[in-house]
Amino acid sequence: MKKKLALVLCAAMTASCLGACSGGNMNQKTEDTTAASQGQAEQQTTAAVETTAAPAAEGAKEWFGEADGKTPVHIKVWAGIQPEYGYSTIIENFNEAYKDKGIEAEYVRYMNNTDGNTRIDLLLQGGGEDNIDVLIGYGGSTRLDRRVKSGLLQDYSSYLNEAGFNIEESLGTTAATEFVYEGGAVYGLPTTLSNSGWMMINEDMFKAAGLEIPYEGWTYTEFREVVEKLTSGEGQNKVYGICWGLNFENSHTTGFCGDTLAPFQTFKDESVKETNFDAPEWAEGVGLIKDTIDNGWAVPLDEEIAEGADTASYFLTGKCAMYLNNSQIRLAMDTATYGHTFMTGYVPHPVPDRYDGDVDQMLHANRVSQSDVISVAATTSYPEACAEFARWYITGGILPLIKGGRIPLYSGIPSEEVVDIISQLAGTSVDGQCIANFMSVDKNKVVARVSSDASSEIGDMLWNRVQEILSGKVGVEEGMKALKEEADVLAAQYAK
What we know:
The protein has 496 residues and is an alpha+beta fold. The protein has helices spanning 15-19, 24-27, 31-52, 87-97, 114-126, 140-149, 157-162, 167-171, 173-178, 203-208, 220-229, 250-257, 280-294, 301-304, 312-316, 329-333, 359-362, 383-397, 415-426, 432-438, 455-470, 476-495, and strands spanning 5-9, 73-79, 103-109, 134-137, 192-195, 198-202, 322-323, 344-348, 368-371, 373-376, 407-408, 446-450.
């Protein structure tokens, strides 16, 4: 594969819009009203799937089963989310819709971490009893590129073309640029919209401490003051200002350090011959994380990176006031499983002080991205059935995942409908207006973001150096300098 210039969506959020994110009305709902709203939202979600999923082009294939025209084929759909957060309903809806078309689907959950993805790569090579037919992968195009290069996925562009699926019209310019390979090949398409430049906060803790919630963004200096004030207690009763979520998804945390550098977060320029790790933003970001840990304002490093650590539980149980990874919003919405009474809100990541007043930077317009990439395994025996599942899933079948905090990317699903479902599902646990504002993006505005085939390995180098810095083995400046030197060598090799 040649290096690709990816396009990243640019948000068109305004500070005045975010300023309205108070969630006050939701706090006044009774438990009975909340339960009723959640039930209504569940019904809406199912109804929306039935009315929104786009039909294939006229004359498209109607039978995907065995050649006898009677026997259905069975496909396994693998993804990294608990089935109760939408996939059980998705499979049920699909099997009902396709019972006369010869396909039945089964859901298999895998752990979306390093070990889990290593296992997925092994299974993609061999098939067998634990075969993968359809895979929902994470990590954007970086992990997808690696799997394509290893021959683990197959091109299903011809089927999409026959079904009348236009990628640019359905998923936007970014998807058409970043996920379509040479010759028009498609090995995976994004299905959800996200912005990794925002984080979850416990609004009740902010208010109890008399702190203003930074809906319009904030600086590193302001963040330091707040995280210190939100830290209290000792021993078992200690409440930390923040949990960085290092063990859950380290690339998300390291990405925080270079938030403001996009499109050149990793590389100096489009030649991708040299990395950008000598930019002062990187040292400032890593230094901020280290300071919070060293001062006792953040969950200790050994607890963060311990094997099997469930860092999201610190936030859900009130042991920390902020949690960096906003993808865990589904857990905050699920008060039946993760009982808590506080209100969760969304705020942008803090930025270096010199960006104060730069609205696009403070709201992280450059971090809007597309995720949850749906692919067809190279080893599947039923490529057409898998491709049809992918098309159905993208164009409306995905809607039950709103319960899990997933925002559908497909342009055929009205944003107002998604916001309404989320707001009702959120009840008194999540500030629905914040989520509505978080979604207020212009999908047609894009900025160039540079990546290369070296990106994945460079990401591993970054994480290793950050761990050394946070553990005190090397200083911030020394560690980032060493990272720059070794990453530049690799970047130059791949760029040849």
